[in-house]
Each structure stands twice: as C-alpha cells, then as structure tokens.
Amino acid sequence: MENQYRHYGSDRSGLIYGFIFNGKEAAQELHSEQAFRLIKDPNQLATDHFIWLHFNLSNASTERWLREHSQCPNEFYDILHQGSRSTRIEHADQQLIAVINDVVHDFSFDPSEIATLWLSISPRVLISTRRKPLKSVDHLRDAVNRGEIFQSSMVLLTHLLRDQADVLTEIVRITISRIDEVEDHLLADRLSKRRANLGELRRVLVRLQRLLAPEPAALFRLLQKPPNWMSENDVRELRQSSEEFAVVLSDIASLQERIKLLQEEIAAHVNEQNNRSLFVLTIVTVLALPINITTGLFGMNVGGIPYSQHEFGFWIVILIVSLITGIAGWFAFRSKNHD
C-alpha cells in the first residue's frame, strides 16, 4: 500500500520521502513508520544522526499532520500562509525556518513555473515542504541517492543552496544562448517573433531576481548570529554559498540590462523599417496624385474639356502629367536626401 501512495507522490500524511544520515556513510531511506516515530521524538536518534523528511504541501493532510506530530515552531506554519514568498532564513525557537524559491522540475521559462520550498531546520531534523516538484530538491535527492555523505542538517541545507545556484546558473546559460540567437536574427534582419521571446525571458529574470535577491542578505544575517548548534565549518560553507549565489544574481541583473538594450535596439530597428515603409507609401501617393487629379478633371462630363478634339490631345495630357509627376518625385526624393 505504501508504494501505491508513493506512486502518486506522497503517502497519507503527505510524506514524499525521508532519509536518515549518520555523517559517516551513505544515507538510508526511511519507511513511513520509522519517519513518523523519529519525528515525534528526535531524541531516539544517536548524537551524530539526523533525518530529512520531504512533504507534499498539496496534500491536504500534510500541514495538519505536521502540527500534530512534528516539533516545528509556530512561525513555520505562519510563513506557509504568508502572501510574500521572498527568500529568507530566520531564527525560531532554537531552530531555523527558511523560504527558498526555485523553479519547477520541467521549467520552460514561464514566470508561473517559479515555486517555493519551505524548510524547518534543527540539529536532528530537517523538514522540507513544497507544492510543486522543484529542481534543486531533486538534485539534492539525487546526491543523497548517489551516496554522498552529509555530516549535519546544515551541510544538507548548504548543498541545497548550492544546487539552487547551479539551477540558476543553468537558467542564465540558457538565457544567454537565447539572447545570442536573437542578436543573430537581428543582424540577419530576421526578427520574426523574437521581441515576444525577449519579453518572456525578461519577465522570468525580473521575477527570479525579485524573489531571490533577499537571499544573500538573509544568509549574511544568519552568519552574523548563527545558532549555537552550527559548527564553524557550517558557517564557512554557508558564507561561500552566499558568495556564489550573489554572483549568480549579479549575472541575472546583467542579463536583464542586456535584454533591455536589445529590446530598445529591436524597437529602433522596427521603427526604421516602419518609417521606410511609410516613406515608400508617401512617394507612391505623391506620384499618383497628378494623374489622379488629371483623370478626375478630364473625366468630368461637362463641356469645354481641353484637347478633346485635338489630334495629339492624349499625348499632350500624358506629357503634362509626366512632367508634373517628375517634378513631384524630384521634390520628394530631394527632401528625403536632405533628411
């Protein structure tokens, strides 16, 4: 029955998966019964052991179950319902609570595909919850399944933050590739729908930066006053992770500026094309004006039409119209050259 529930993403309590770590060997996956027993009483764990439990918040019973069985602080449940989801890490009852933004597993550069991960971190237990499958958490789980060794819950958090930075680096790399493609189309004068593509990229980057920009500052505040159960190595690793993340945010800001400049250049290019088309239309209208006026006048069914009985009247009118058209065209092109 447990496998059946896992096939659909989580069990009755909302648990997707859990692991137990001892800091010396590869983590072991926890069965639901083991996870539930340990989360109720973390003191059953050995001094060098800790657990990671990952929950699906879309499961309606998850929050209720956590309130009844876990030791997460009340602040953790408060942030689950706050409208603001900007990244932050805060102290709460000798624990840490964190809000981390990430992209969904099948990210396709849609702003709606940026989702949130909520965490409660203590020396013995790390609880993470999300509503949509997230890339960074998947990378962390892959590392655990590969047998990577984690000495503490903070090392696990640091690895998650670095996975988040790696995901953002990949997004930056793909964005640069797409911008280069747009520039190539601009130089080749084949813009098609590239302006809309740039707009989508810029919206994604703006939302990512807005949500993720507070993260380095949040880590800095945490490093200024870390909980007493954090080791010096944890502080050092978090500081390095913060620096790497700040570099990625700087790259995102640079990409936004590059997209903005490229959009302005494309807009100028389009305006130039429109002006050229408008000029051609104006020239055609000006050149057609004499013959339209002449045919209108000579087509009037009244007496006194000049050259109506003249042997070469038609050719005389053609000569007059051609002369006037030539003069009008000369004036039009002369004014264009002066511009």
Automatic annotation (TrEMBL):
Please give an example of a GO cellular component term from this record: plasma membrane
Q: Which family does it belong to?
A: Belongs to the CorA metal ion transporter (MIT) (TC 1.A.35) family.
> What is the protein name given in its UniProt record?
Transporter
Recorded topology in the membrane: Multi-pass membrane protein
Organism of this sequence: Undibacterium fentianense
- The main place the protein resides is membrane
Citing just one GO molecular function, the answer is: cobalt ion binding
Q: Which SUPFAM superfamilies match?
A: CorA soluble domain-like, Magnesium transport protein CorA, transmembrane region
- State its location(s): Cell membrane
Which keywords does this Swiss-Prot/TrEMBL entry list?
A: Cell inner membrane, Cell membrane, Coiled coil, Ion transport, Membrane, Transmembrane, Transmembrane helix, Transport, Zinc
